[in-house]
Design brief:
This protein has one domain: Vaccinia Virus protein VP39 (Rossmann fold, 3-Layer(aba) Sandwich), CATH 3.40.50. Strands 1-4-3-2-5-6-8-7 form an eight-stranded mixed beta sheet. By secondary structure, the protein is of the alpha/beta class.
Amino acid sequence: MAVAEEAPPKPRPQVTPTIQRRYDSQASLYDLREAPMELFIGRWRRRLWQQVPPGSRVLEVGVGTGKNMRWYPAGVSVVAVDFSPKMLARGTRRARRHHIDVQLALMDAQALALADASFDIVVTTCVFCSVPDPVLGLEEVRRVLRPEGRVLMLEHVRSRLPVLGRIMDWLNPVSVRLQGVNINRDTVANVAQAGFAVRRADNLLLDVFKLIDGAPAAPVVV
C-alpha cells in the first residue's frame, strides 16, 4: 500500500468544505452506522467490482473508509481518492491492516489532480449523492478516462415512483444537513450530461439503488 503524492488543488465549489467537514465528523463511527446496510450493499459492491477486467488501471473515486478494498480484483492497479482527510485516514489504516495494494490520495472528485486519459476504469459507490457539483465531478471522471474506458457506479437516486420521489424531495434538506448526502439526485441524467453514453442502469432495489455502466460518448461531428 502506497500513499500518492498530492498535487496543488484546483478551484472547487464553495460548499465543498462544508460537506467535507460533515464527513470528517462522521468518520469514527461511519462503518458502525452503515453496518446494517452492508448486509445487502456488500453483495452489490462485489457485483460492481466483478465487472473490472484483469490488468486494468482503476481509479476509485470516494474510497472513504475503504469498504470496497476487499473486492478489488487481482491483477489490477488501483488509485483511490477521497476528499475527507479523516475518512481517508481510516481507509489507509484498512489498507495497511489487510495488505491491500492501493495508491491513496486526498483529492476532490470535482478537481482530480490526475492526468487526462490515464485510467481504464473509474469506480464509484454511493459517492455522487455527496459531490457538491455532481456534473463537474463526472466531467472530471470523463477527463481522466481513456476514450475506450468505462465508469462503473453503484449509486442511489431519486425514485420515479410519484409518492416515494416526493418523500425523498421532502427529506433531502434534512439528509444534506445531517450527513451531506442528497437522496433525490438524478444521477443517471447527470452521467449523460457529463458526456457519457449510459450503456446500462440496472435497478437493484426498487428504482432507487442502481448499477450504472457508462462510457465516454463519441464526439458529435458537425
